[in-house]
Design goal:
Length: 607
């Protein structure tokens, strides 16, 4: 094996820190001790027939995974595999490993026994990257083979996977001639007779720290032996041996870790100590590690940026994208009401006087208001936060909350007291739920005689369908409602106990709306009648938002501003818009409501 090796292909046999199809995550350097080792190349993890050994793979540990350089043999299956790779039929590799140290689903350490060519790998990153017979060949300086005569898989345990190269296997004649024990055998025997403490004392500080981390990963519950990863190895050996990136857990009686843990488990049981970690910390001095908790890894964030605790906001985009937009902010509408009897055409009787038609002309207009959101950050904090872009994160929150406030004002108003200086004026952005009856039809639901939830839900559906005749809006509208009301309607059952509406789409078809959208801010919203001062609980709004116009002059669209306060060393941010909005088509919305409990009309004060 002198000289350089010409490999047939190369690629990652496994990638770090990605979840495999079997649920495990291989962590960085889990197989670092095998960098420079050679393992068999097998077809689809078939270990029963030597014909399925199709070559070998030389392993190289990298920061992002384990890289493999593969060489195919000249067996029929090796030649067939070369043809499949050349034709592009295969591009995936998979490993078979055991002697694992696990923490939950994380693989911290293990031994790769073989690499397989597979149709589909469990690890998403285990892909073949280069083919020598496709790209003209490549020679890797992966090993300095001028100095190394052969590559040996060295293990103290009995392994089911052995090197298949005949030149690496000793002859029977060599074995017979070498009956005398050599120095290597003596050294191995001495190593086998060493105590746990002697082995531990010979470790470097880095190796001792690794031992401490592995011990910490084992048995962390109160019983010390109840976690799934602590099930005795014999039970794992009885399980079916799956082939796609499966890891076998073996009981390694000859390793330091097993003996040390076994000794501590026995001591924990004798001393009635409930936690293995507590037992290890109490006896850490005996193993040369004090304050072992310092070695525990720091907590890691599961997300790149803090997640917002917010209301469900899918409805916001529906409102913002559904409204009609005008390039000017002062909106005016003119209408001629020809629904009165006086506007009707008349029959003429000879000698009678003809009466002129009377047309009532109506108009209304609205002007814009500025809506804004302001934030600030200390510049020191911006510099110190290095894990993510805090400025971009903050600007995203500002835009999200501004959009929600505008959408709320369009549907039901901002809900603030009219005397509040932060109030979005309802004559600037006229909320649909509180608009004049000329534009938003009020549909009260009478629950008289309805005692059960099903009876009330049926009354709501019947009332909406009957009121649809008065709707004059564009096309099929959307039903904006609360999650509570939608749930009550979907729970309707027939006399046989079967659901009447199998899904939301079936209910929307029944109500003659294009879809149903739930609005969290509508929960508990009450409308006050401007004439009688009676309060009504708004249960939903039916509208096609094409009939609602949002106006903004040039420069009044949503804009972001930022400024630096040199006196206080602060970055300040402002997002604002200046808009108006209102329904521009009569009878284009329906407000479904019920009389609020305990509501009594109060007289309107006279000016």
């Amino acid at each position: 094996m002198k000289g350089k090796i010409k490999y047939d292909f190369s690629g990652y046999v496994t990638r770090n820190d990605v979840r495999c199809d079997d649920g495990v995550i291989i962590r960085k350097d889990a197989f670092s001790h095998q960098s420079g080792s050679r393992v068999p190349l097998v077809w689809a993890h078939n270990h029963k027939d030597p014909e399925y050994v199709i070559g070998f793979v030389d392993l190289e540990n990298r920061d992002d995974g384990v890289y493999g350089y593969g060489s195919l043999n000249s067996t029929p299956k090796g030649k067939l595999s070369r043809q499949l790779l050349t034709h592009g039929d295969l591009d995936s590799m998979s490993i078979h490993a055991n002697k694992l140290s696990k923490k939950g689903s994380n693989i911290l350490h293990g031994t790769i026994r073989e690499v397989s060519l597979v149709l589909s790998g469990a690890n998403p990153g285990a892909k073949i990257e280069y083919l020598s017979f496709e790209h003209g060949g490549f020679v890797e300086d992966f090993y300095d083979l001028d100095e190394v005569d052969e590559i040996i898989l060295h293990s103290a345990d009995t392994v089911d996977y052995e090197e298949n190269d005949e030149e690496d296997a000793p002859d029977d004649q060599d074995v017979e001639e070498n009956d005398e024990p050599n120095q290597d055998n003596n050294e191995e025997e001495d190593m086998a007779n060493r105590t746990v403490k002697e082995i531990y004392d010979d470790m470097t500080e880095e190796q001792q720290a690794a031992v401490a981390a592995i011990v910490d990963a084992v048995l962390e519950d109160d019983e010390g032996l109840e976690d799934e990863e602590d099930i005795p190895d014999e039970e794992f050996e009885e399980e079916e041996n799956m082939k796609h990136n499966v890891f076998e857990v073996e009981n390694d009686q000859d390793t330091l870790i097993h003996d040390a843990i076994g000794e501590m488990i026995s001591m924990a049981r004798e001393n009635n100590v409930s936690s293995l970690r507590k037992q290890f910390i109490e006896h850490a001095g005996e193993y040369g590690i004090n304050n072992i908790e310092i070695l525990f890894p720091d907590a890691r964030s599961l997300t790149d940026t803090p997640e917002f605790i917010k209301r469900e906001d899918a409805w916001v985009s529906t409102v913002m994208q559904g409204t009609k937009h005008s390039p000017f902010s002062r909106i005016k509408t003119n209408y001629a009401n020809i629904t009165a009897d006086e506007a009707r055409a008349r029959g003429y009787v000879k000698k009678n006087k003809k009466v002129e038609e009377v047309i009532e002309v109506l108009n209304r207009d609205t002007s814009p208001q500025t809506i804004y959101k302001k934030q600030k950050l200390d510049r020191d904090d911006i510099i110190d936060i290095t894990d993510f872009d805090v400025v971009a994160w903050l600007k995203g929150e500002m835009r999200m909350m501004l959009d929600e406030e505008i959408a709320r004002a369009i549907l039901i108003g901002d809900g603030r007291n009219p005397s509040s200086q932060d109030k979005i004026k309802e004559d600037k952005i006229i909320p649909i739920a509180n608009d004049d009856d000329m534009f938003a039809i009020k549909v009260p639901v009478d629950f008289t005689g309805a005692t059960t939830d099903d009876e009330k839900a049926n009354k709501i559906i019947r009332t909406i369908i009957k009121a649809r005749k008065d709707y004059r809006g564009s096309g099929e509208p959307i039903f904006f409602t609360t999650e509570e009301l939608l749930t009550d309607l979907l729970l309707l059952e027939d006399k046989m106990g079967r659901a009447i509406y199998n899904d939301v789409n079936a209910l929307a078809t029944k109500l003659r709306v294009s879809r149903i959208v739930t609005v969290p801010v509508m929960e508990g919203y009450q409308r006050t009648d401007k004439t009688t001062n009676k309060k009504w609980d708004v249960m939903g709004v039916i509208v096609n938002l094409k009939d609602y116009t949002v106006g903004s002059d040039k420069g009044g669209s949503i804009s972001m501003f930022e400024d630096f306060d040199i006196d206080f060393n602060q970055e300040k941010y402002l997002i604002e818009t200046r808009i108006s909005g209102m329904l521009t088509k009569p009878f284009s919305a329906m407000v479904i409501e019920k009389e609020a409990s305990g509501s009594t009309p109060t007289p309107t004060p006279t000016p």
